[in-house]
Amino acid sequence: MREMMQKLRDASIQAILESENVESLEALRVKYLGKKGELTGILRQMGKLSAEERPAMGQLANQLRADIESAIDARRSELMSAMMEKKLELEAIDVTLPSEDVRVGHKHPMYNVLDQIKDIFVGMGFEIVDGPEVELADYNFTKLNIEDTHPSREWTDTFYFKDDSSILLRTQTSPMQVHAMETKPLPIRMIAPGRVYRKDEVDATHSPMFHQIEGMVIDKGVTMADLKATLNLVVEKIYGKGTVTRFRPHHFPFTEPSCEMDIQCHKCGGKGCPTCKGQGWIEVLGAGMVHPKVLAGCGIDPEIYSGWAFGMGLERLAMGEYKITDLRLIFENDVRFLEQF
Ligand code: DAH
Question: I need a surface site. Which of 95, 112, 267, 300 has the fewest CB within 10 A?
Answer without folding.
Answer: 95
